[in-house]
Structure formats: structure tokens, C-alpha cells
């Protein structure tokens, strides 16, 4: 079986979906599925990846075809302030010439040219395809650039979704969003995986040495894009309440963001008198990220909306107790496994949850151990890839989705 994965960008700056497609393809290839990726050279708003163009090359251990994006996007075409429309004429030509060579396409994102184009070409050439919306049909996501998305949905994406062989969701909550959007295409759940971590016994001490922290000071970790959707400002406000109650903590904000928003956060921190208790780590990857995950004491992500939340799963895999808001759609799984605290997205609830964990090292250890078990059981790349193979086989053989993976109507 030969499968093509289509995604607008594989840049690590773009977050979870870029990471997920690379790890998915790697796991599928380990199971003997001939999987490849086609994408653009996007690397954020102002840069492109330094990679070969219009030819197959190896990127992070998997085969990739990359084509130049058109940037900046035409006025009025971008549907997301972080992910441009990413038109690519060369990509269009390649898809037209090569789509029929694949048994199946898996396409990620809505409202972005590469994925939309691939779905239309697959329809014309009668190649089955899967749509992975990556959370873009959640209520909060649809409220952003609402008019543009309504028009684009009417003209293109509703047809693409309705003609798909299946829709892949990362959580049951995302499957409900699909249903609420009025799409009746067969839907299945396959979560995002996380890689197992090599234990780093000295991580806590190393992290405190880097940030010059006392050994007893608990480290709170925020690891995600610094963006209003992720609400680091809410976390800062909650910690301001705790600082006034003389709680000892140090927050590390790990991620990048738009300069104006970063300035806003820095000004808020200064005005609240928290500059000595908060550090900006910038974008982290590799050993730097593993050090943060294993050296911190608790993880917080208070997002408005996440179809999954890769950083949350990574934190649990590292044994960090997680505090998440109800907009993160794996929050029910975390609560059911007693792997963290799932709360409403207001400052008092967040401050109370953080205080609860700061007050009890035993509770942090208990929730962290439960999170590690959940991550190992539920978010193994090997297990997820095996489920995907059964879905692929069902689609290629024109059979119904496996009943243990298919989502029934809500």
C-alpha cells in the first residue's frame, strides 16, 4: 500500500500537527506501509525551510517532497493569522501528475491551499482520501475569520469533507465537532502519539542550575506557542494571585510568538511584579525540550481550544502532572485517568488548581505517575500506526471502518 500525507507545513514552528505527521509516517513505514509526505517550504511567516525543492529527500528520517510556497498570501486569502493559505503552483502541478500513483491520501488541515487542492484532485482522479481537520472545526476555531471560513466552507471544504472516505479525529470531542458541523462522513478516532523518553535523573538539578533557582522552588512549565489561543496571559494572572499569597514558584514560558504579543506578555509580567519569577525560554526542541519536561514540577496549558494537545501528552509521558482547561479535548481522558486536573478556563479555577499541586508533592507524584501510564497505554506511536493501517485497508478495500475505531453518531 502506498499512502501520501499532505500537509501545508512540516516546520517545527507550526507545532503539533507538523510533529505528528512526521512521527506518523515514521511509524507507518516501520510497519511496511510505503508512506511519503508532500508539503511546502513554509517555516513561519517570514522564513522558509532550507531544504531541496521538487525532489524527494529525507527529513527527520522520512521521505518528503517539498515545494515553494507563495508568501505573503494574497490579501484577504489567509484564514489563520498563524498559518497562511500557502498557495503553491508547483505543488499543484506535482499533485496533478502524481496523486494517481497512490492508493490513499491523508490530508491535514482545512482552509489551506495544499490540503484543499489535494482533496479536489483526489476526487477528480478517484483516489480515496482521509481528512484530518486538526481541530479547525471546533467552535473557537470557526469563530476566527468567521466570514472567510463560511465562504470557503460553502465553496470548497464542505464538499471535500462530504466526499472523503473517512475523517480522522484526535479525540472524541473533535468527532463531535465534525457532527455538529453537519458532516455525516464516517469518522474514526486516532490520537496523536508521543515518543518514549530516555530518563534523565539529573534534569531537575540541571534546570535549576540554568535558571539559577533554589532546589526547593517548584517549576511550572508552559510549553506551546505564545498565542492568545493558548492563554499564557491567563496563566500569568493566576500566578499573580498566588504570588500575592506568598507561593514559591518559577514559571518557564517555552515557545515563540508574534513580537507584539510577546511585548504584551512582558509588559504584563513587569506590571504585576513577576519578572523574577517568570522566564522566557523561546522555542525549544531536542535535548532542551526534554530537559524542561523532566526538570519541571507541573505543566499547565489553559487553551481556549485544542483538538488534542501534543504538549500535554508529552508532559504526561515525562511524568508531569498536567493542568488543562475544558477546551482541550483530551481533558476528559486526563480526568478519568486521574492524570491531572481538568478545570474551567477562568483565573480563579486555574489559580486554585496550581495551588493544589504546589501544596502537595505527593499529589504531583501521583498524578504524574498516572499520566505516564496513560501516555504509554493510549499514545504509543506503534499502537496508533497499527490502527491507521486497519483503517487504510478498510478504505482501499471499500469496506466499513473497523467498529472498534469508528465513531457512532452523537
Q: Which key phrases capture this entry?
A:
alpha/beta; Rossmann fold; 2 domains; 8-stranded mixed β-sheet; 6-stranded parallel β-sheet; 14 strands; 15% strand
SSE order and pairing:
Elements: E1 2-6, H1 16-30, E2 34-40, E3 56-59, E4 62-67, H2 89-98, E5 104-108, H3 113-124, E6 129-132, H4 139-143, H5 146-162, E7 166-169, H6 172-180, E8 187-189, H7 203-211, E9 219-223, H8 232-244, E10 250-254, H9 259-271, E11 278-280, H10 286-295, E12 298-301, H11 310-317, E13 322-325, H12 331-336, E14 340-343, H13 347-359, H14 361-378, H15 381-396
Parallel strand pairs: 1-2, 1-5, 2-4, 5-6, 6-7, 7-8, 9-10, 9-12, 10-11, 12-13, 13-14
Antiparallel strand pairs: 3-4
Helix pairs in contact: 1-15, 2-3, 7-10, 8-13, 11-14
Short description:
This protein has two domains: 2-193 and 380-396, 3-Layer(aba) Sandwich (Rossmann fold), CATH 3.40.50; 203-378, Glycogen Phosphorylase B (Rossmann fold, 3-Layer(aba) Sandwich). Helix content is 42%, strand content 15%.
Question: How do the SSEs run, as a string of H and E?
Answer: EHEEEHEHEHHEHEHEHEHEHEHEHEHHH
Secondary structure category: alpha/beta
Q: What percent of residues adopt helix (DSSP H or I)?
A: 40-55%
Reported by name, the CATH topology of the largest domain is Rossmann fold
Low-confidence stretches: 77-82
- Mean pLDDT reading: 91
Give the overall form: globular
Distance between the termini: 32 Å
Q: Please give the number of β-strands.
A: 14
Output the CATH class name of the largest domain: Alpha Beta
Largest sheet: 8 strands, mixed
Amino acid at each position: 500500500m502506498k499512502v501520501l500525507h499532505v500537509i501545508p507545513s512540516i516546520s517545527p514552528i507550526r507545532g503539533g500537527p507538523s510533529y505528528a505527521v512526521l512521527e506518523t509516517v515514521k511509524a507507518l513505514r516501520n510497519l511496511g506501509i510505503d508512506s511519503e509526505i508532500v508539503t511546502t517550504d513554509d517555516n513561519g511567516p517570514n522564513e522558509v525551510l532550507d531544504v531541496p525543492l521538487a525532489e524527494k529527500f529525507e527529513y527527520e528520517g522520512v521521505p518528503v517532497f517539498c515545494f515553494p510556497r507563495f508568501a505573503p498570501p494574497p490579501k484577504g486569502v489567509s484564514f489563520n493569522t498563524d498559518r497562511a493559505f500557502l498557495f503553491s503552483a508547483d505543488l499543484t502541478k506535482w499533485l496533478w501528475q502524481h496523486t494517481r500513483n497512490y492508493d490513499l491520501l491523508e490530508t491535514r488541515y482545512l482552509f489551506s491551499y495544499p490540503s484543499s487542492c489535494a482533496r479536489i484532485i483526489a476526487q477528480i482522479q478517484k483516489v480515496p482520501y482521509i481528512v484530518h481537520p486538526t481541530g479547525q472545526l471546533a467552535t473557537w476555531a470557526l469563530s476566527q475569520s468567521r466570514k472567510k471560513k463560511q465562504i470557503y466552507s460553502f465553496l470548497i471544504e464542505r464538499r471535500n469533507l462530504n466526499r472523503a472516505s473517512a475523517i480522522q479525529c484526535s479525540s472524541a470531542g473533535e468527532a463531535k465537532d465534525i457532527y455538529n458541523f453537519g458532516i455525516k462522513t464516517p469518522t474514526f478516532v486516532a490520537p496523536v502519539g508521543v515518543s518514549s523518553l530516555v530518563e534523565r535523573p539529573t534534569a531537575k538539578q540541571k534546570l535549576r542550575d540554568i535558571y539559577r533557582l533554589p532546589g526547593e522552588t517548584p517549576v511550572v512549565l508552559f510549553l506551546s506557542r505564545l498565542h492568545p489561543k493558548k492563554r499564557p496571559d491567563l496563566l500569568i494572572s493566576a500566578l499573580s494571585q498566588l504570588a500575592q499569597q506568598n507561593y514559591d514558584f518559577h514559571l518557564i514560558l517555552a515557545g515563540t510568538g508574534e513580537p507584539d504579543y510577546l511585548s504584551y506578555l512582558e509588559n504584563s509580567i513587569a506590571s504585576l511584579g513577576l519578572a523574577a519569577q517568570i522566564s522566557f525560554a523561546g522555542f525549544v526542541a531536542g535535548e532542551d525540550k526534554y530537559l524542561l519536561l523532566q526538570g519541571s514540577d507541573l505543566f499547565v496549558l489553559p487553551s481556549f481550544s485544542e483538538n488534542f494537545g501534543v504538549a500535554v501528552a508529552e508532559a504526561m509521558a515525562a511524568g508531569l502532572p498536567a493542568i488543562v482547561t475544558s477546551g482541550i479535548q483530551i481533558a476528559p481522558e486526563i480526568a478519568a485517568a486521574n492524570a491531572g486536573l481538568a478545570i474551567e478556563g477562568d483565573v480563579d479555577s486555574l489559580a486554585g488548581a496550581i495551588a493544589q499541586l504546589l501544596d502537595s508533592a505527593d499529589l504531583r507524584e501521583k498524578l504524574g505517575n498516572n499520566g505516564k501510564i496513560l501516555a504509554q497505554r493510549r499514545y504509543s506511536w506503534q499502537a496508533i500506526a497499527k490502527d491507521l493501517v486497519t483503517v487504510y485497508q478498510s478504505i482501499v478495500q471499500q469496506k466499513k471502518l473497523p467498529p472498534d475505531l469508528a465513531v457512532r453518531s452523537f
